[in-house]
Amino acid sequence: MIKVVDVSKAFNDKQVLTNVNAVFEQGKVNLVIGKSGSGKTVLLKSLVGLHEVDSGSILFDGRDFTQLKEKDRANIRKEVGMLFQGSALFDSATIEENIMYPLDMFTDMSSQEKLERANFCIDRVNLTGANDKFPSEISGGMQKRAAIARAIALNPKYLFCDEPNSGLDPQTAIVIDRLIQEITHEYNITTVVNTHDMNSVFAVSDSLVFIHEGCSWWNGTKEELLNSENDQLDDFLYSSELMQKLKNNR
Hints:
This protein is α/β, with parallel strands linked by helices. The protein has a domain at 15-48 and 173-250: P-loop containing nucleotide triphosphate hydrolases (Rossmann fold), CATH 3.40.50. Helix content is 39%, strand content 24%. The strands form two sheets. It has a six-stranded mixed beta sheet with strand order 6-7-8-3-9-10. It has a four-stranded antiparallel beta sheet with strand order 2-1-4-5, with helices on one face. β7 (158-162), α6 (170-187) and β8 (190-194) form a beta-alpha-beta unit. α6 runs parallel beside α7 (198-204). The longest helix has 18 residues, at 170-187. It is globular, with a radius of gyration of 18 Å.
């Protein structure tokens, strides 16, 4: 479980996050939703330590990341998998080499052990046979699956995904959503996903946090979402065609 307590973050004179509170539960797909510029990505980067928060606490199963020394932070980072918006694969490395990269960096595995782990992850995301291909030789959806394979290579306790469906067609986006959901439940991972994709919200979310103008404005489940009496949340939700149709059918 990850617990965010009164987290605030500013850049120069611009306040981006203000007293954000959230709980991301283990074994669940926890979605962070909100408009572009609401602070979702800053929150995600703060969770993984790419931004230092100005105040507040971020607790990984009770360990306050904001108070830890760098050595202890490094131990938590070894438990983290990250799926970036643009996949962020190394263009000059094969899919197999990309997936082995965190194993090379953070483990003492033998070459054979690393190869076996890489192959396991490749098979798990349905990329069997793509080991020797380069990112430019596979589709965007396959690149995203390769990035997921790399993210789970270290068998993480925590998985962070920044707009995983960005740039994907709707059908491929569903495949990626389902894969993230399956991996989360199968390995009991605490998964945090930034998204504004309403299809993802209703297809795979177990819990939701709505960020509005840098504040944690609402939290709940997808079942509770449509019955919310939060005006800002309603404005965000019903700005999409899909949600307008759902609203009209209520």
